[in-house]
Structures are given as C-alpha cells and as structure tokens.
Amino acid sequence: MTDSPTPDSRTPASPKPASPTPDENGHPSTEKARELLVTPPKSLSQWLEALLKSPWVFFELSRERRLRVVPMFGLLTFTSLCGYGALMGTFEDPLQCYVPALKVATGMLLTALLCFPSLYIFVCLTGVDLKLGQALGLLTSAIALTAILLIGFGPVAFVFSVSVQSYFFMGVIHVCVWFVSLLFALRFLERGLTGLGVKSVGYIRFWGLILLVTTLQMSTTLRPLLGTAEETVQTEKRFFVEHWALCLQHDIGRSDKDG
C-alpha cells in the first residue's frame, strides 16, 4: 500500500516573479526610478535624457526637489525656443533671425506664465493637495518637452522654409509642428499629475485647449514671426483666425499677380 505524500515531500511550486515595489503614489517602481531618487540628474544633459527617455521628474517633483527642476528646464526651454524661432526667421531674412527667436521664446514663456494660474486652479478642483511649486515644476517640464520636440522637428520645417514662398502654407507647417509638440507635452503633464494623485484628467485636457488657443493668439499678437515688417511688433489688434484669413488672401493675390 502506497503512503500518501506528506506536505514536505510534495514538489514545491515554482516561485512567482516578484512584482515591482509600488511607490508612494501606488505606481510600480523600477530600478531606474529608485536610482534617480537617490542620485538625481545634475547636469543639463542628464536632465534632458531623463525627460526624454524616462521621465522620472515626477519623483523629483514629489520629493521636494522641484526647485532644482525649474531653473534647469527653464534654461533648456529658452535656448530651444530661441533656436526654433531663429529657424523660422530663415524663411525671408536670415540676417534678422534673432527677432523671431526672441519673439518665440518670449511668447511661449509668457503664455505658460499666463496659463499657470488656471492650471493650478483646475488641478485643485480635482481634490488633490498639489503644492504650488509642484505645479510650477510640472508645467516647466512640459513646456521644456515642447521646446525639445520643436527642435526635433526643426530640420523638417527648415526644408519647407527654404523652398516655399507662401506665408500661409509655412504658417500651417509651423502650427502643425507646434500642435503635435503640445500634444506630447500635455500627455506628459497628464502622466505627471496622475502620478501625484489626480484621478480625472478632464480638467487638464480642457486647460490644454486653453493653452493651445492662447498660444495661437500670442503668435498673432507678436506678429510678424514669418517675414519682416516696418514695425517689429504690430500694434493693430487682430484675432488669430482673422490674421490667417488675411495671410491666405495675400498669398492668393500674389499668386494671381505672378500668374
């Protein structure tokens, strides 16, 4: 008669793979995240790498090191926006490219500053106890990502800039590039706020629409960004849709004249 196997004689079950240790916000933590928590980026290039490859800046923002993020990403944003603005200046007069460079950088930073209060209010309405410095750090990181993506799209825009004469078409190219870059930045912002405890991103997406419209209007306020004019900044008030329509009429009239 065969004895029944005792508990000790049974074949041990295969151990289950250990699940990642959740962080303080309930999100799985990785080795890279833990490493960055201990040794945060120090140089601008390291911050850039963290922003693009593994955006663990969320951990930085939630662990009281947000004041280090703002100046680093602020410098990165300003230089990148100046570079893209200079590229826009090559459309008509490369010798005057410093003018759109300063306009693009100043305009985007002013837009972010103007939209920051509404972002903080919308996040607070979600019920999350978000610190003012944390919100500022996340917005700075998102705008920095926008600027980096603009630089990445720069060579493509440059090809059209040196081969196209239509102001309206070039404006559409730059708006599309700007729109795609902002979409990635807003997705980044949503992930960061979710990591800090925001449950619903409906308010954030509505704020993203506000940011987009404000950016388009700021570009019209600081016109011309493409080409040159007698005045560096136009004083006439104009809605951005109206400005685009006038640019299209100008291009059509010039085409008929050349034809």
How would you describe the overall organization of this protein?
The protein has 9 helices and no strands. By secondary structure, the protein is an all-alpha fold. The termini are far apart.
Main features:
259 residues, mainly alpha, 0% strand
What general form does the structure show? globular
Computed over alpha carbons, the radius of gyration is 25 Å
Percent of residues in helices: 55-70%
pLDDT averaged residue by residue? 77
The major beta sheet can be summarized as: none
SSE diagram, text form:
Layout lengths: L30 H8 L5 H10 L3 H6 L3 H24 L8 H28 L6 H30 L5 H29 L6 H20 L18 H19 L1
Helix pairs in contact: 4-5, 4-6, 5-6, 5-8, 6-7, 7-8, 7-9
Task: Describe the structure in brief.
The chain has 259 residues and is mostly helical. 67% of the residues lie in helices and 0% in strands.
